[in-house]
From TrEMBL:
It comes from Paenibacillus konkukensis. It is an enzyme of class 3 (hydrolase). It comes from the Bacteria. Its EC number is 3.5.1.25. One of its GO terms (molecular function) is N-acetylglucosamine-6-phosphate deacetylase activity. The gene is nagA_3. Belongs to the metallo-dependent hydrolases superfamily. NagA family. This is N-acetylglucosamine-6-phosphate deacetylase. Residues 46-370 form the Amidohydrolase-related domain. Coiled coil: none annotated.
């Protein structure tokens, strides 16, 4: 149970002023400037908890090895606290119909049995199978399971998920996409365009039908494209679409990140797309998404047979924030909000109000070092300290 009252001191990530945050019943009660005496001390930064819309697994807990192992959701939820992630969307990718249904059932059951996971995972991201079958756009997804959007099938999965599917990544290149998107919107599900080979007209139609996001824009694409028009320009130019990017330094060159950030403004978001190998040792791994994958010592994850094709990311949001800071692509407040308030706002989560009275006390204390970047010191979920770098062993038993 969250402690009834506590307080947290830190340098506000946005105002850069020392503040005390008072917490009551898991919510931020008030913020006050710190008095001069305490200001002398070296304080960590304080910022809203990180929100990741695309997590395939963490530290061996995999949401895409079916059946999902007992305890995987609980382990990922608690492991992610080390990374400052207080909210995440378990992501299930293209697979057989029965396997997806089983995955949905498992995640829903885990959330029903564990209130901590339920609070951390407000929804599931279904990435596929209604994506492009083409090599390149489908990335590491299994071609044999790709198919046109199918509403009755989606309803079966949504039922298995107990209504928890909140994001669907699809390609509008399939016939019937617009109608499917409209029904998702009616059901309050965010439709994201991704793993697509759609024409500009099909993308326009999808936006018209209510698509509001692009999944890891610039990845899950052909290695070569017509200079214009193409589906990347088209999504960049549509102001209705928020764009998720993987800013790990491997998935996109800095020039592409810069253009995406400029084009999307407040609608540019960070995701990790972290796979279950994140946090593991470098090496060769067997993976259900497209066979064998290699995790390099530098943290890059690629298909063993096609080193040019990435197979998801092994780095979490603090790494992406650090990359944006290091490369000069964003200031701290912007980079942090790309990975917290902005995704919260898109999903209409209570955490969207950030460090404000009434907001859930999902907080991160961190240090900023060059060149190592963001180092998480403490993580708070609903006012409870769930990770402390000074006593990580205690957290492991939480
Ligand atoms: Zn993907």
């Amino acid at each position: 149970m969250p402690r009834s009252v506590t307080k947290v001191n830190g340098i506000h990530y946005k105002t850069k002023q020392p503040v005390t945050i008072h917490i009551e019943h898991g919510r931020i009660q008030s913020l006050h400037p710190l008095d001069a005496e305490i200001r002398q001390a070296a304080l960590p930064w304080v910022a809203p908890g990180l929100v990741d819309l695309q997590i395939n697994g963490y530290f061996g807990a995999d949401f895409n090895t079916i059946p999902i192992a007992e305890g995987a959701v609980e382990r990922a939820t608690r492991g992610l606290w080390r990374q400052g992630v207080t909210t995440y969307f378990p992501t299930v990718i293209t697979n057989g119909d029965a396997e997806i249904e089983q995955a949905m059932r498992s995640i829903a059951a885990a959330c029903a049995a564990d209130p901590v996971s339920a609070a951390a995972a407000p929804g599931i991201h279904l990435e596929g199978p209604f994506i492009s079958p083409e090599d390149g756009p489908r990335g590491a997804h299994d071609r044999s399971f790709t198919k046109a959007p199918d509403w009755p099938l989606f309803q079966r999965w949504q039922e298995a998920a107990q209504g928890r599917i909140k994001i669907v990544t699809l390609s509008p290149e399939w016939p019937g996409s617009a109608e499917f998107i409209e029904r998702c919107v009616e059901q309050g599900v965010i439709v994201s365009i991704g793993h697509t080979a759609a024409s500009p007209e099909q993308i326009a139609e999808a936006v018209q039908a209510g698509a509001r996001m692009s999944t890891h824009l610039g990845n899950g694409a052909h290695l070569s494209l017509p200079r214009h028009p193409n589906y990347i320009w088209e999504q960049l130019s549509r102001d209705e679409l928020a764009a998720c990017v993987i800013a790990d330094g491997f998935h996109l060159p800095d020039s592409v990140l810069k253009v995406t950030l400029r084009a999307k403004g407040e609608k540019a978001l960070l995701v990790s797309d972290a796979v279950y190998l994140s946090g593991m040792e470098p090496g060769l791994y067997e993976n259900h998404i497209g066979g064998r994958v290699v995790l390099t010592p530098e943290g890059r994850l690629h298909l063993a047979e096609h080193p040019g094709l990435l197979a998801g990311s092994a780095q979490l949001l603090p790494w992406g924030i650090s990359h944006l800071l290091d490369s000069g692509l964003a200031e701290l407040d912007t980079a942090w909000e790309m990975a917290s308030l902005r995704p919260s706002a898109l999903l209409n989560l209570p955490s969207q109000s950030g460090l404000a009275p009434g907001a859930p006390a999902d907080l991160v204390l961190f240090e900023l070092k060059r060149p190592q970047g963001v180092k998480i010191i403490q993580t708070y979920k609903l006012g409870e300290r769930v990770f402390d770098s000074a006593s990580p062993a205690k957290e492991a038993n939480a």
